[in-house]
Amino acid sequence: MSVERVLLTNDDGIDATGIRALYDALATDYDVVAVAPTGDRSSAGRALSEGVEVADHELGYAVDGTPVDCVVAGLDALVPDADVVVAGCNEGANLGAYTLGRSGTVSAAVEAAFFDVPAVATSMYVPGGDDWWKRELEPAEFANATRATRYLVAEATASGAFDRVDYLNVNAPIADGERDGPAPMRVTAPSPWYGMEAVHDGNGRVSFSDPIWGRMNEGDVPDSIGTDRRAVVDGEISVSPLSVPHAAEPDAGLDEVAAAYGRATESVR
């Protein structure tokens, strides 16, 4: 397939540095229209609003809603002729299977898949432990992410990859001005490792933490080569080819359980 028009969205907000960097990179080859949240809607997952307010923006449209709102509004009303949806560039990585349903960036790509539109979700790993989000990022630091996304929009569509998968989850290391050339690319699978922790303070509050960020800084990553997290820690661009979730499993062994339901409920009438 050929790509002429790109719908660009994110979950950091339409004025974030990452979406501007990606817009500028893609606009050299495509007609890019941003349909993105007015502000930060990180970790919104696939939340959908009843309706949204839309305002014109220099990049396209600013939507007072979630990333999924943006994709639905974009593909069904604002930019219905988009050939590809690109979500990003997220300021922070979206690594591991457990982040896929939580990430607003990835959820935008998933929503596009239900419209049968190819999508690329792009995020950038920012080192720094639990306080990485305090870092002020420069457009040039997104170079690995923007270069890879531009390449994949052209080459993955031309190769027919989207005939077999619905979307690509891309995670790139932050660009280092002292590095020689772009980071290499590796096809990966989302890491299955899960380590979320909850602490109850005894006064009615439970706090959550994800210890993987500290382990990544120490180089003690519990992932093998071929996983998304390992690739990024090794300085590679991770590309995970994925399809929409919730596949039915007809052989789950529930046929007899379902058949017995009527008999089981007879006793409670």
Describe the fold and architecture.
The model has no long low-confidence stretch (mean pLDDT 91). The protein contains eight helices and eleven strands. α1 (17-26) packs across α4 (143-158). It has a nine-stranded mixed sheet with strand order 3-4-2-1-5-6-7-11-8, sandwiched between helices. The protein has helices spanning 17-26, 67-78, 104-114, 143-158, 212-218, 228-233, 255-259, 261-266; strands spanning 5-9, 31-37, 54-57, 60-63, 84-91, 119-125, 167-173, 185-187, 197-200, 206-209, 237-242. The protein is an alpha/beta fold and 269 residues long. The termini are far apart.
CATH superfamily: Survival protein SurE-like phosphatase/nucleotidase
Count every helix, treating DSSP H or I runs of 4 or more residues as helices: 8
Content of β-strand: 15-25%
Outline the low-pLDDT stretches: none
**Would you give the CATH topology?**
Stationary-phase Survival Protein Sure Homolog, Chain: A
Helicity range? 25-40%
| Secondary-structure element string | EHEEEHEHEHEEEEHHEHH
Main sheet specs: 9 strands, mixed
Provide mean pLDDT, rounded: 91
CATH C-level: Alpha Beta
For the secondary structure, the number of strands is: 11
- Give the spatial strand order of the biggest sheet: 3-4-2-1-5-6-7-11-8
Q: How many structural domains are formed by the residues?
A: 1
* CATH architecture annotation: 3-Layer(aba) Sandwich
* First-to-last CA distance: 58 Å
Instruction: Tell me the overall shape.
Output: globular
